[in-house]
Fold this sequence. Notes:
The protein is α/β, with parallel strands linked by helices. It has 11 helices and 7 strands. The chain has helices at residues 18-29, 41-51, 64-70, 91-94, 97-125, 146-166, 184-188, 190-196, 204-217, 228-237, 239-256, and strands spanning 9-12, 33-36, 54-55, 77-80, 128-133, 171-176, 221-222. The protein has a 7-stranded parallel β-sheet with strand order 3-2-1-4-5-6-7, sandwiched between helices. α2 (41-51) links the parallel β2 and β3 (54-55). It is globular. Belongs to the short-chain dehydrogenases/reductases (SDR) family. This is SDR family oxidoreductase. InterPro entries: NAD(P)-bd_dom_sf (IPR036291), Sc_DH/Rdtase_CS (IPR020904), SDR_fam (IPR002347). Keywords: Oxidoreductase.
Amino acid sequence: MVEAVQGAGVVVTGAGGGIGAALARRFAAEGARVVVNDLDAERAKAVAEEIGGIAVPGDASAIVGEASEALGGTVDVYCANAGVAFEGGETGEAFDERPWALSWDVNVMAHVRAAHELLPGWLERGSGRFVSTVSAAGLLTMIGAAPYSVTKHGAYAFAEWLSLTYRHRGLKVHAICPQGVRTDMLAATGSAGDLVLQPTAIAPAEVADALFKGIEEDRFLILPHPEVAGYYQARAAHPDRWLTNMNHLQQKWEASR
């Protein structure tokens, strides 16, 4: 058992399935009191009933107050897990403003809004934990998914900013950056996901395992696929070589369509 989460009040957004449900199950198994949030009320209720948690359905950007009340007034851990992804990549699809707007709102601004509500209480008592489900796309990129890649970069940058700004005041921040995970969102990536992500896709429970190992080791960056560290280093050290290699992958994808 991880002492840091025993008895903690935990909120997991987008927890009706996939990574969110796996996180909710793991926190509950570790002795936390868990609020399960999802836009789909029935899915949220099903997971909450399974783990002995509390269902608080609705928009992830607007449930902090209700979730806090359900936990007796205190949120100790907030998992900003809800996210959206769209299949696309052709010129028209990549520049359609509707998926851009929704991606910014869910993948970035929901994190910002939650932190804005939670920080005053966390800073006053000198403790709090913010878990951001980002993606390896937030460290690297993803072919055929401009809104997802760019907004996940934003989510990662916001998590970094939270950590560097408030770690001396007791805030713990973790950024989870997996590659492919066998969820509905992976299916939404279409043929690009089939090419890049499916071959090494892992189960959602493995993401939860990686997070809890990171909590125990007090690490900011959580890599359920350890090889991502090498890709990230290569991208920073040799950006043109990395971009050329990614362009080769783009061409392979285009040829397969």
